[in-house]
Amino acid sequence: MVHSWARAFMKRGVLAALAAVCIAARVSGTPATSNTCVLAEPGADLSVENHTRVALSVTRAGQQVFFTCPDGSPLDPTRAVQQGRFYAASADGTTCLSSQAPEALSDKVPGSYLTVIKGEGISETTVAFFVPALPATAQNVCFSCSGGAANKQDCPVVISIAGRPVGRAVEEDLTCNGEGEKKIAVTEPGTLTLHCGTETPTADPTLARGNVFTGADCTEKVELNTVLKDATLEVKPQEQTPPAQNPDEKKDYVLKVTSMPEATQQICLKCVQLENEKTTTPQKTCTFKIAVGKDAEVDSAGFRPSVVSGVAVGVFVLASSLIQ
Q1: Residues 6+ apart with CB under 8 A from 201
Q2: pLDDT at residue 116 above 60?
Q3: Domain boundaries of the chain, sorted by first residue
Q4: Which distant-in-sequence residues (6+ apart) come within 8 Å of 168 by Cβ?
Q5: How far is Cα of residue 243 from the mean position of the Cα atoms in its chain?
Q6: Peptide bond into 237 cis (omega under 30)
Q7: How far is residue 272 from each of residues 30, 141, 293, 298, 317, measured CA to CA in Å?
Q8: CB of 53 within 8 A of CB of 157?
Q9: Distances in whole angstroms, Cα of residue 56 to Cα of each of 48, 66, 134, 161, 250
Q10: Would you state the pLDDT for residue 35?
């Protein structure tokens, strides 16, 4: 039998241990003090070593970085947190181009935002910058801890955001075989090899005419160049295979995109199985739905490219967990 004094002692021990764990968790989640700006005297050189400027990096989707403005140093641009604004960074990435008009985060790093972790107004303020998904190309954004009220220099905070990796689509995503569809996002110029499987080996429309389908339901037939300037879609050469009588019965097709359209364009190529040479009604159809544009992953609401959707779900789950 455990005496009451022993139970009380054990209870105090457990509570103390839990408290220690909680304190440790809070400490481990505290932003590093090296990201706290120090306002320099007029004319002094700014450096990362003495914290008179801060350099941060975002290298993966779902990453959050922190920085702190000291007492008497409000964040600039004004209302950066509320309106999602930033300054362009100088070419060497060391300072903000504050003489230029602020830009919108949504234009350069879609989905990113600032959150005040602690502090308000001109008191010491810690700010978090969250990037749910990497932009198509690398970007630098700049914020400033203003030193004007203290007659000191501003402390620039330059955040470098990596561009998302190229060529994430894997072989399985680029093969259409049997009934179904494959959704692909093309976010920069390049070449894509599409495979029609053995169950549905024939391309539709006929590539010799330079046509593709378009529209959310892939039923409108148009010339490829009317939607994607200078793009080509051709049969991949089959050096090891005797030429087929019908060139569209080869299995591999090469889409070459030489430039990005101003707005995201959506095209379709179907891989079909025909009952015989005389019929035009396919027995089976597998459809490539391809969104082309620098922001294709966020703009192609009609298609929702599958190679991106799984990542997006994970990102939004992560975002929710970070802001709760």
Answers
A1: 249, 250, 251, 271, 273
A2: yes
A3: 31-161, 171-239+246-316
A4: 307
A5: 42
A6: no
A7: 57, 47, 26, 29, 38
A8: yes
A9: 10, 8, 15, 9, 50
A10: 92
Tell me whether domains 31-161 and 171-239+246-316 share a fold.
yes
What CA–CA distance (Å, rounded) separates 206 from 280?
A: 12
- Cα separation, 85 vs 290, whole angstroms: 32
Fold of the CATH domain 31-161: Immunoglobulin-like (2.60.40)
- The Cα 48–Cα 224 span in angstroms is 51
Looking at residue 142, what DSSP letter applies?
Answer: E
| Residue 270 token pair | 């179907």
Backbone angles phi, psi at 231, to 5 degrees: -75, 155
CA distances from 47 to 39, 54, 195, 274 (A): 11, 8, 53, 68
Q: Residue 209 and residue 279: Cα distance in Å, rounded? A: 19
Instruction: Please state whether beta strands 155-161 and 232-235 pair in parallel, antiparallel, or not at all (unpaired).
Output: unpaired
What pLDDT, on a 0 to 100 scale, did the predictor assign at position 122?
61
Report the CATH superfamily, name and number, of domain 171-239+246-316: SRS domain (2.60.40.1320)
Inter-residue contact 48 to 54 (CB < 8 Å):
yes
The tokens for 300 are 């192609």
Token pair listed for 249: 């019965």
pLDDT per residue as tens digits for the range 142-196: 999 999 888 999 999 999 999 877 544 444 468 888 888 888 888 888 888 888 8
Query: Percent of the chain having pLDDT more than 70?
Result: 72
